[in-house]
Predict the structure.
Amino acid sequence: MLKLFRFFKPYWWQVIILVVTIAVQVWTTLRLPALMANIINDGIVVGDVEYIGQTGLRMVGLAIISAAASLISSYYAARIGTSFTRDIRTAVFTKIINLNILDLKDYSTASLLTRTTNDTNQVQMVIIMMLQMLLRAPLFCIISIIMAVQTAPDMSWIIFVGAGAILGSVILIMSIVGPKFKIFQGLVDKITLLTRENLTGLRVIRAFNNEGLEKKKFAKTNKKMTKLLIFIDKILELQNPLINIIFNGTTLLCSWVGIALLSKDFAYLGNMTAFAQYVTHVMISFLMMSMLFVMLPRANVSAHRINEILAKTTKINWLKKTKGVPEKNASVEFKNVDFIYPNAEEKRLDGVSFKAEAGKTTAFIGSTGSGKSTLINLIPRFYEATSGEVLVNGISVKDYEKNDLIERIGFVPQRGMLFAGTIRSNIKFGAPNATDEQMRKAARIAQAENFIEKMPNKYNSHIAQGGTNVSGGQKQRLSIARAICKDPDIYIFDDAFSALDMKTDAKLRAALKEVTENSVMLIVAQRISTIKDADQIVVLDNGRVAGKGTHLELLNHCKIYQEIVKSQFSDKEYKDELKLAEKYRKGASHA
C-alpha cells in the first residue's frame, strides 16, 4: 500500500484541510465529557443553574463545530479517495496500453481486467476508510486515554484491559484470514477469465453442445470461491460478538468500579460519568481501527497486484526523438534478422533478409507456424528482433520515436478488430482528422461501400463491441478501410483477406493499386490467388527464407512453394502453372 501513496501528491493541500478538520472534530468532541463532568460537579451538585446553562450552551456550540468539521472531513476523504483511485486506475490502464505485447503475455486478460477494476475498488474502499479513520481513531484513542487518566486515575487500568482484549482479538482473526485474501483474488481472476472465455466463445460452445461442460467448470470455481468467502466471513463475523463482549464487559467494569469509588466520595460522580464517555471513545476508536485492519490485508493484496503492473518494465524502449532522417521513398528491409520467443528453445525467425520497396507488393507465405505473422510484427515493434536489423525508410525501427514509426504504418491484423461506436469512428480510428471524402474513398477501395450504403444510418450506423453485429467479411473490409484511410507509407495485411470471397478479394487488390503507388504493401496470405501477382514473394519454412521471387520464379526453383501451389490448384491448373513457369524461365534465360 505504501508504494501507492505517491498518488496523494497532487492532493496535499486537501489532505491538510482533512487533517485540520479531523483535529478540530476530535478536540471539540473530547471537550464535551469534561464539560459534562463540570456540569455535574459544579452545577447540579451545588445547584448553580446559571453555570449549567452557560456550560450547556458551550457544549451545543462545540457539538455544532464538531458536526461541521465531521461533514467537511468526510467530504474531503471521499474526494481525495476517489481522485486517488481514479489516478491509479488511469496509471494501470496507461501502463497496460504501453506495455509490449510480449510483456502482456505474462498476465491473462481476465487478470488485467480484475486489477484495473476490482483491485482498484478494494484499494479505494480502504483509502477512504484510512482517510476518515487512520488519523481520527488514534487521536480519539490517545487523547481519550490521557483525559480519562487525568479525570479518574483510579479507573485508568480498565481502559488498558479493554484495549488489549480488542487488539488481541483483531490480531488472532487477521492471522487466520489474511493469507486467504490472496487466494480469493486469484479466484476472482479465474471467474473473470471463465466468464470472458465463455462469452467470446459462445458460438463454439453451442456448436459443440458443450454448455454443460462449461457450466461445470464455472460451477467448480464458483463453489470454491464461495466456500472460501464463507470461511472468511465466518471468521470475520466473530469479530462483532467479541467486540460487543469486550465493549459491554468494559462498560460493566467501569460501572462496578465507579460505584465502589462513588460510595466513598459522591463528588466522584462527574468524573466517573466523564471517564465512562472517554472509555466509550477509546473502545469505538479501537473498533474503527479493527474494521480498518480487517479490510487492510485484502486491500494490501490488491495493492501488490496493482504495483506489480505499475512496476513492470517493458522490454522495448522508444527514443524521444527519431535519430536520423528517414528516406522519402518508403521501404522495409530485414537484414539477417533472428527472433526467439522468451523461454522458447528454437528460433521463430532465423537469418531472414529481404527488401520491400515503394510501389511494389511483397507477400509472405508458408505453412502454419513458419513465422509469417511474427515477421511482420517486428516492423511496428510489437516484438523486438533478437538479432539483426529491421529498417523502415532506411532507418532502424529502434531509432524511431514511437509516433513517428507507427504513423507510417497501416496495420490490418489477422482478426479484424472493431470498436464499439459507428462505422465512421471505426474507419477514422487511425486518422481522426480525415475528411468524409477520404473516409468514403477508403470504404470504396476496401469494397465496403456497398454494404455500408444499404445500412439504415450508413456511415453513422452502430457497431457493437468487437463488431459482433457485422459479418466476418464486413469486419475485415472495415479494418482494411481503416488502414487505407490513414494513408500510410507501409501497408501490412496479416492474412486480412481470408474472410473475403475470390471475387471481392480480386477487386480489393486491384483497387488497392490506386493508393499504393508510393507505398510498400506487405501481405501475409495462405491463398496463392491472393499473392500470385505480387512483385516479390517470400516463402518461409520454420522461420527461414526458403525462397524469394515472383510466382513463376518460385515455381521454377522452390520446392516448398511448388507444394503449396499443388495443394491449392487442381492437377490441370497446377500443370498449366508449371508450363507458364517453364516458359518464363526459358524466356529469361534467352534474354
The longest strand covers residues 331-339. The chain has 22 helices and twelve strands. The mean pLDDT is 79. The radius of gyration is 36 Å.
